[in-house]
Amino acid sequence: MSTPRQRVVIVGAGFGGLTAAAKLARTDADVTLIDRRNHHLFQPLLYQVATAGLAPTQIASPVRMILRRQPNVHIELDEVTGVDLAGRQLRLGDRTIPYDQLIVATGATHAYFGRDGWAEHAPGLKSLEDALALRSRVLLALESAELDMDPAARERLLTFVVVGGGPTGVELAGAIAELTRRALACDFRRIRGQRARILLIDSGPRVLSTFCPSLSAYAKGALEKLGVELMQGRPVGHVEAQAVTVGDTRIEAATIVWAAGVQASPAGRWLAAETDRAGRVIVDADLSLPRHPDVFVIGDVARMPDGRGGVAPGVAPAAKQAGAYVAKLIDARAHGRASPGPFRYANYGSLATIGRKAAVADLGPVKLRGFLAWIFWCAAHVWFLIGFRNRVQVVLDWLWSYLTFERGARLVFEAVTRSREIRVVSPPVEVRTAS
Amino acid sequence: MSTPRQRVVIVGAGFGGLTAAAKLARTDADVTLIDRRNHHLFQPLLYQVATAGLAPTQIASPVRMILRRQPNVHIELDEVTGVDLAGRQLRLGDRTIPYDQLIVATGATHAYFGRDGWAEHAPGLKSLEDALALRSRVLLALESAELDMDPAARERLLTFVVVGGGPTGVELAGAIAELTRRALACDFRRIRGQRARILLIDSGPRVLSTFCPSLSAYAKGALEKLGVELMQGRPVGHVEAQAVTVGDTRIEAATIVWAAGVQASPAGRWLAAETDRAGRVIVDADLSLPRHPDVFVIGDVARMPDGRGGVAPGVAPAAKQAGAYVAKLIDARAHGRASPGPFRYANYGSLATIGRKAAVADLGPVKLRGFLAWIFWCAAHVWFLIGFRNRVQVVLDWLWSYLTFERGARLVFEAVTRSREIRVVSPPVEVRTAS
Questions:
Q1: What distance in Å separates the CA atoms of residue A278 and residue A425, rounded to the nearest whole number?
Q2: Cα–Cα nearest to B422, from B146, B101, B235, B61
Q3: Which of A167, A166, A230 is nearest to A198 (CA)?
Q4: Which end of chain A has fewer surrounding CB within 10 Å, N or C?
Q5: What are the counts of helices (DSSP H) followed by strands (DSSP E) for chain B?
Q6: How far does B43 lie from chain A, in Å, by closest CA?
């Protein structure tokens, strides 16, 4: 008896969706993978693009290229607008795509704790657009400081605020510190030797609060060594254009980055599903939507049980594992095999890097710090890549950049013009030399 | 007797301005280099970024990085708005910069023969912004064709028009042909195996008209072999959104690129100078502005005499040579040495590439074609780089890309959304599979 081919539709080409597609490639399912972007993004390294350490092509790969050798996977660049659960079809504007199995893996976006007006002044870092915009902002702040003789303006331009003390915030703060230190030491004239002020603001008592306290403390020390000022245990009270308020203190900063919170993409609304406070869809033990065994919700958009009574964290490994799990489950069902049982998140540990040579790795019983952790961090990130060209290529590529680029990615694509970018309070007044 | 330091101000960090700054670095002049962009762009390879062959970081370098080791050169990211010739100062909005010597090297932009409305529908390729916009356009055209079942819409989406048969147009047409051929062969499902139509429209009788006829003919053959259709001897009559008219023929094309003409940047207006029809400033034999021996105008913005009664072409080597010449002249004058005589353009020949393995090189008595010319073309481009990191690094970098990237730069940075990008005439209607 031949089973008809299952039509599996996957929304989202991040870690969850792409892993599911890749695992389903070896089955006899017909897979359609839909994303609004044409590339898969290695998000953990986005902060490197934002601080001119790597170029976009080094952390993103066209989805069509990744899945080129998988003829049963069909890719569509489009935007989902809704789901018809009863009719089992996906809505994309006027058109629909029917499914037998649906996997929703649309990820997360920034959360501003209800103050969405802050998004304009304190953008986050979730996409290549975000990273390139931040990169331009940081570089242009330095360029403007070079042209501005007004001390207050210059101080504001040379102040960078990162909100959020998790891995993203820590990595960003460390990288901005290194970028500005090097630039100010070598590349400017009027602001040569000045110090940039990099503040990391966190509402919790310690940075990297999901790591063990000794590694938190190590990270704090490493950040301070890089010149980052930590404001811990104080939430941000207000964000405006070029200033944040923490308690009674108002800090003027031309560059503010939000790394403090995420919320799930709006898929929960499409599915009319029950969600938690962060908008994450609550799913069953097998990651399916309650009462809809053919609809799976995985990754950052879901509140996934970890198989041990807790909740899986919103990290790349969890999304990958979930994608692989669901693919296996779908294939088992299609062939009448026993299901793999409930999803179980295997926690291999947490990693964060601080600058170019220090990192922390909390691997349960094993804790690493410093250069050794950093080597481990590099190895883990390479291992993690989903057939992202091939791993050897990527290692050589990143090594090459690391050794030679010297922030060669320090490009601002657009021309600055007086009508747009240059708001100098007090331009330099130059005196004609006698001749 | 000590001479006061000359204050040399250079506007433009392209080939002309950057070469002048680099040569003046070894003198005792105080140099200020101003550009609206923070990077020097290797324009000859811009078409590679536009067709996803190379990434921006591989053909552009931050100006501050290039001139890092030259302490007498000061860089400002700003926009010049005028020149006060009598007062010998540059105007940048409200501020001014005085000069003893001024070098204007602001380059060229696109020319539409008076029809500036065409610019919106047929953008050119002069900056990284242009290149990335074109790259997105080409990639999104393919993605839209994959989703559109309407034959006329699909044909329009798979038609690419390049206007202009000079080196830029030829290189672009060849690269688009290769990109689409590979993508259509491997990466799509509904449009797999279809052919894109690439047209190269030129008003002259033969492509690469500045090359000798035999090399023109070779280039024509190489283009046709790549699948490019040539329309020669016919100027474009009209350009509208997604269509061009040539004589009586109206061709619908979602992507139209303008490589047909350039005009000088508006510096001529700042200088109230006499200009030719393309807006180029007419300069004396020593590249100075008539009656203003301390103001030099070089590169594509100038109509530079070639020292043999003719005019130097608007190519990178001419700009480089002019930059070096003016630096030498300024330094000689400052120290009371004899001037180097009139500017003389040394024509080392012309190069153009057609696809990844063929090129033509017109080196005067020596003509090269095919693979040998291509090797020569590569070597010449590498040699040409102005301390662009270092040449060894760049060779390895480009070789790496060439061998491994497989158009890995095929990224569209922005997310497509139904409100913006996706205009599908006839979306695919999909039938539910029995289950």
A1: 41
A2: B146
A3: A230
A4: N
A5: 11, 25
A6: 14
d(CA A107, CA B348): 55
For B427, the token pair is 């979306």
Report the chain A residue with the minimal C-alpha distance to residue B400: A397
> How do residues B83-142 score in pLDDT, each as one tens digit?
999 999 999 998 999 999 999 999 998 888 888 889 999 999 999 999 999 999 999 999
Across A198-213, average pLDDT: 94
The 8-class DSSP code of residue A300 comes to: G
pLDDT in tens, B203-235: 999 999 999 999 999 999 999 999 999 999 989
Residues of chain A contacting residue B396, judged by C-beta atoms under 8 Å apart: 400
As a whole number of angstroms, the distance between CA B80 and CA B93 comes to 7
Measure A377 CA to nearest chain B CA, in Å.
24
Q: Name which of A70-79, A352-361, B27-36, B79-88 the model is least confident about.
A: A352-361
What gap in Å lies between CA B201 and CA B250, rounded to an integer? 12
Q: Which of B76, B98, B128 sits opposite A432 (nearest CB)?
A: B98
Return the CATH class of domain B117-260: alpha beta
- Reduce the DSSP state of residue A36 to 3 states and report it: coil
Q: Which of B243, B123, B141, B225 is nearest to B178 (CA)?
A: B225
Query: Secondary structure of chain A: what % helix, strand, coil (to 5)?
Result: 35, 25, 45
For residue A430, give the chain B residue with the closest CA: B97
Q: Which of A60, A81, A389 sits opposite B411 (nearest CB)?
A: A60
Please give, rounded to a whole number of angstroms, the shortest distance from the CA of B310 to a CA of chain A.
34
SS3 A212: coil
A238 membership: H or E segment, kind and range = strand A236-240
State pLDDT tens for residues B233-284.
989 999 999 999 999 999 999 999 999 988 888 888 899 999 998 899 999 9
CA distance A245 to chain B (A): 31
Residues of chain B neighbouring A396 (CB-CB closer than 8 A): 400
| CB < 8 Å to B435, chain A | 4, 6-7, 100
- Chain B residues inside the 8 Å CB shell of A65: 187, 406-408, 410
Q: Does domain A6-110+262-334 have CATH number 3.50.50.60?
A: yes
Half-sphere exposure of A322 (CA within 13 A, CB side): 36
Q: Are the Cβ atoms of B432 and A7 closer than 8 angstroms?
A: yes
User: Would you call A406 a catalytic residue per the annotation?
Assistant: no
Count other Cβ atoms within 10 Å, centred on residue A48: 23
Residue pairs between chains A and B whose CB atoms are closer than 8 Å = 205
Polymer length of chain A: 435
**Residue B245 to chain A, least CA–CA distance (Å):** 31
Catalytic residue among A143, A146, A171, A178: A171
On whether the CB atoms of residues A211 and A362 are closer than 8 A, the answer is yes
| Cβ-nearest to B57 among A62, A409, A430 | A409
- In this prediction, residue A434 has a pLDDT band, given cuts at 50, 70 and 90, of very low
Select the residue of B94, B128, B140 nearest A413 (Cβ to Cβ).
Answer: B128
Structure tokens at A299: 């990754």
- pLDDT tens digits, A33-87: 999 999 999 888 899 899 988 888 888 889 998 898 888 999 999 999 999 999 9
- How would you class B282 by CB atoms within 10 Å of its CB: exposed for 0-12, middle for 13-18, buried for 19 or more? middle
In A355-433 the beta strands, taken as DSSP E runs, fall at 358-363, 366-369
CA distance A58 to A39: 12
**CA end-to-end distance (rounded Å), chain A:** 97
Do B55 and A60 lie within an 8 Å CB cutoff?
Answer: no
Cβ neighbours of A146 in B, within 8 Å: 76-77
Neighboring chain B residues of A89 at a CB cutoff of 8 Å:
432
- Residue ranges of domains in chain B: 6-110+262-334, 117-260
